[in-house]
Design brief:
Elements (H helix, E strand, L loop, with lengths): L1 H5 L1 H4 L4 H13 L11 H10 L6 H6 L8 H14 L7 H25 L20 H7 L8 E5 L5 H7 L5 E5 L3
Parallel strand pairs: 1-2
Helix pairs in contact: 4-7, 7-8
Length: 180
Amino acid sequence: TMLARSGWKDRWRIDWGFYQPILRLAKTRGLSILALNAPGEITRVVSRKGLDALPASDRAALPELDLKNDSHRAFFRRTMDETKHPLPKDGLERLYTSMVIWDETMAHHASEWLKTDKRRKVIIIAGSGHCRNDGTTGRIRRRGIEDVVSVRPVVVDGPGTIADLLVRPEADYLWVMTPD
């Protein structure tokens, strides 16, 4: 029922099997489950046509966007270069803005939920690009929630992977895995 009502296949396009054990555990423990992400309809418009293409009502509904974070912008550019993602002339800026909308929306919803009760805790399960101190975590801190920790999953796929991340830390903790 939840899959059908949430439009899981259309909205997430991620195998339900990855999330099923986590959500079932939360349900059996009586824990809240929050949908934090920005609507795909908004991020798709921004990634394809830019922020100015959003209807005024959608634009007004967005949380504050910090598009001037140099380390986050550099990370995004490196990621796009490494993946050799083909982009039109202004495509990088549109994709970056779309990612920031994701981060800012998750940060906004999480911080609003946390502020309603100081005893609350939240675990955000998101892609590794969001699990950075200058990603969702830093954006939560900017909203007044100081007790925030980022954990970045890393697959060790060759020499230097962990050393590089320790020299330039992007998260508070690394969750190190092997490809096997």
